[in-house]
Amino acid sequence: MNFADPVERLLFLQQLPLLRGLASHRVALLAEAAEECILQEGDSLIAEGDPRDSFFAAARGRYRLLFEGRPVWDAEAPVLLGLFEALADDRRTRIIALEPGLALRIPRAALRDLVEDAFDVVEHLLREAGEMLALQDWLEVSRLLATRPSVHRELPGGKNWNSFVARLSALRAAPVLRSFDFDSLGHLARRGVVAQLSPQTVWQSGDLGGHFYVVLEGRPPTGGILVGLLEALAEAPRFHDFVVEDGMTVMRFDRDMLFDVLEDHPTSAFALLSTFATLVIELFVARDHLRLHAAEELRDPGDR
């Protein structure tokens, strides 16, 4: 493989799952910014604590990801390495080469420029990431997370939710949306549909996600103020039932409407992609913790 040739770099990048399906001229921008890295056994692609200013597309070799010094994942080329960490600027991981390898180093800035100039890249990455995570037990991990005590934060009750200011304040309280710029939140506040949900099953586990809710009054069973966002972004099956027991006031947002707003606000689009990447990392870490806990449970008590 001759990575000195930009066409070779382009053809290779287009084979990788998270980039497959993007228009060639989009991927070409990443290929042009990429630099070839020849790696030896033990080399660090990413060091724990360093700024996440790049990610890697490995063409040859095997690699190990360590989280806070603990090995959690081995991967074999071809594979993207450090993409979610670069998007989220998460500095807790280290990636090392287990054998001689070859990779392309792609600056985070090149991806950010591409995301802010081409909204279809945001939509593609969100959908592809969701599908990839589903294949790696993302939905199962999400079910386990959903059984934990709710992180719900109550909003002040009794407000006039037809008020723009009240809706805007509710959106600013939602953790994932807090990173949006003020103009983006204003557009969402105007376009969200306020509704009353009577006691009912709104959706069941396995239903396809196409919309999400911001809960204004009432307590959802899982998810806090935001309910159903991840599945809506990825167009993935719901990972939990949403049952209203005592009535609830919500703002409903369709996925396409959210994307219309983000297309006009590239800074918020990149912020959402970064937040999504953070959630991916947290789910990955949670799965690793569950694996370690299960291993501890299987040990003979005399070995502890």
Question: Can you give a write-up of this model?
Answer:
- This protein has a 4-stranded antiparallel β-sheet with strand order 1-8-3-6. Strands 2-7-4-5 form a 4-stranded antiparallel β-sheet, with no helix packed on it. Strands 9-14-11-12 form a 4-stranded antiparallel β-sheet.
- With 304 residues, it is α+β, with helices and mostly antiparallel strands.
- Strand 4 and strand 5 (70-76) form a beta hairpin.
- The protein has 2 domains: 6-117, Jelly Rolls, CATH 2.60.120; 131-289, Jelly Rolls, CATH 2.60.120.10.
- The longest helix is centred in the last third of the chain and has 33 residues, at 266-298.
- It has 11 helices and 14 strands.
Task: Write the topology of this structure.
Layout: H1 6-13, H2 24-33, E1 35-39, E2 44-46, E3 54-60, E4 62-67, E5 70-76, E6 79-81, H3 83-88, E7 93-97, E8 101-107, H4 108-117, H5 119-135, H6 138-146, H7 164-173, H8 182-191, E9 193-197, E10 200-203, E11 211-217, E12 226-227, H9 229-234, E13 242-244, E14 248-254, H10 255-263, H11 266-298
Antiparallel strand pairs: 1-8, 2-7, 3-6, 3-8, 4-5, 4-7, 9-14, 10-13, 11-12, 11-14
Helix pairs in contact: 1-2, 4-5, 4-11, 5-11, 6-11, 7-8, 8-10
